[in-house]
C-alpha cells in the first residue's frame, strides 16, 4: 500500500497553448486540482516552490486555501528553499496553515534547487555568515525553524505588555502540535539523507540526485532510502519516518493521452551537470497501463518508498490532470498492490 499524491511545478505562461496563462490561473487551478484529487481518492496535493520564476512561489497562502477547501487530503511542498526563509516567520505561517487544514500539512524543505538568479537569497536579505556556504545557511535556518516548531518558550516577555502573558518565556503563536513530525527534507545525496535522519525529518528523495555511482537512478535512490532508514534507527527517534519519491507517470488510455504522451516515456536516466557537479535524473514513464505495471514493478526506489508523488503537467489544465491522476489510481495502482 502506498500514499499516492500529485506534485505540481506550478508553471504559467501567457502562451495561448497553456491553460495557465497567469499567476492567478495557477493558484486557483492548484486549489481546484487538490479538490478533484481528493474526490478521486488520492492521498496528497504537493506543490513546488521557486522564486524569480513564472511558477508557484509563496506556498502558505495556497496551502491554507487548499486546506480550507478540502477535508482529508495531505497538503505539502516539494520543496521550500530554506536559503530564502525567515525561519521564525515561517513557523507562524506553517503552523497557521496546518491548523486551518486540521493537521494535514506535510512540509518539504531543503537547501533548494538551482536558482533563477545569481544568489537570489541575498535579495531576500540573507547571506551566508563568514565561512559558511549557502547550504550551511539553509541548514542553519532549518535548525531555527525546527526548534521553533517544538513550541518551547524562548523569548523574554515585556514586563508591561499590551495583553496579559502566560508565565515564563514566550513561544511563537500559533503552535500546531505534531507539525514537527511532518517536516520532510529534500535530499539529493546519500549524505544529506543521513543528515535528514539525524535531524528527525522525513525523507523526500529528490527528483534528481547530485551524485552518480554508475548505477541506474532508481537503484541509487533506493540505496539512499536504505541509508536514511538505517541512520534513523541509529538516531533512536520516537516516531516512524516516511519516505517519498516523485515520478512522471502517464497511463495511455485515450486519444488525449496518445496526443500528449504517445511517443512514450524517457527510456533511460539522464546524467548532466548542475552547479558544477554531476547530477542524475530519473526516467519518466508513459505507456499502456499493462506495460506501465511491468515497468514500475522494476523501480526499486518506488518499492522502498511509502509515498509516491506523481508530477503533473499543470499547464494542461485541471480536467486533464485529474484524468492523469485517476488513470494511475484506477488502472495501475491496484495491479501493483498500491491500492
UniProtKB/TrEMBL annotation:
Keywords assigned: Monooxygenase, Oxidoreductase
Keyword Hydrolase assigned: no
Entry-linked InterPro entries: Bact_Lucif_Oxidored, Luciferase-like_dom, Luciferase-like_sf
Keyword Metal-binding: no
GO MF, any single term: monooxygenase activity
Protein's organism: Williamsia serinedens
Name of the protein described by the UniProt record: Flavin-dependent oxidoreductase, luciferase family (Includes alkanesulfonate monooxygenase SsuD and methylene tetrahydromethanopterin reductase)
Domain Luciferase-like: start-end pairs: 9-259
SUPFAM superfamilies: Bacterial luciferase-like (SSF51679)
Amino acid at each position: 500500500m502506498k500514499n499516492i499524491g500529485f506534485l505540481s511545478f506550478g508553471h504559467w505562461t501567457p502562451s495561448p497553448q497553456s491553460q495557465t496563462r497567469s499567476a492567478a490561473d495557477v493558484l486557483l487551478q492548484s486549489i481546484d486540482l487538490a479538490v478533484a484529487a481528493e474526490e478521486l481518492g488520492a492521498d496528497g496535493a504537493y506543490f513546488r516552490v521557486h522564486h524569480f520564476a513564472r511558477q508557484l512561489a509563496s506556498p502558505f497562502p495556497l496551502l491554507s486555501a487548499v486546506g480550507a477547501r478540502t477535508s482529508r487530503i495531505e497538503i505539502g511542498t516539494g520543496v521550500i528553499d530554506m536559503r530564502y526563509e525567515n525561519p521564525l516567520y515561517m513557523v507562524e505561517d506553517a503552523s497557521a496553515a496546518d491548523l486551518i487544514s486540521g493537521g494535514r500539512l506535510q512540509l518539504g524543505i531543503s537547501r533548494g534547487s538551482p536558482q533563477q538568479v545569481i544568489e537570489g537569497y541575498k535579495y531576500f536579505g540573507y547571506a551566508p555568515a563568514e565561512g559558511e556556504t549557502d547550504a550551511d545557511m539553509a541548514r542553519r535556518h532549518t535548525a531555527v525553524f525546527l526548534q521553533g516548531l517544538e513550541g518551547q518558550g524562548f523569548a523574554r516577555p515585556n514586563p508591561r505588555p499590551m495583553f496579559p502573558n502566560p508565565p515564563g518565556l514566550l513561544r511563537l503563536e500559533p503552535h500546531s502540535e505534531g507539525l514537527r513530525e511532518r517536516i520532510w527534507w529534500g535530499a539529493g545525496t546519500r549524505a544529506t539523507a543521513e543528515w535528514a535522519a539525524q535531524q528527525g525529518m522525513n525523507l523526500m528523495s529528490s527528483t534528481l540526485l547530485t551524485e552518480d555511482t554508475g548505477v541506474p537512478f532508481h537503484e541509487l535512490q533506493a540505496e539512499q532510502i536504505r541509508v536514511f532508514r538505517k541512520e534513523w534507527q541509529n538516531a533512536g527517534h520516537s516516531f516512524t519516518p516516511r519516505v517519498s519519491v516523485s515520478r512522471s507517470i502517464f497511463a495511455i488510455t485515450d486519444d488525449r493521452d496518445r496526443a500528449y504522451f504517445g511517443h512514450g516515456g524517457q527510456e533511460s536516466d539522464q546524467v548532466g551537470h548542475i552547479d558544477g557537479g554531476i547530477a542524475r535524473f530519473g526516467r519518466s514513464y508513459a505507456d499502456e497501463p499493462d506495460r506501465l505495471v511491468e515497468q514500475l514493478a522494476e523501480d526499486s526506489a518506488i518499492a522502498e518508498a511509502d509515498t509516491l508523488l506523481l508530477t503533473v503537467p499543470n499547464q494542461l489544465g485541471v480536467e486533464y490532470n485529474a484524468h492523469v491522476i485517476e488513470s494511475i489510481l484506477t488502472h495501475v495502482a491496484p495491479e501493483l498492490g498500491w491500492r
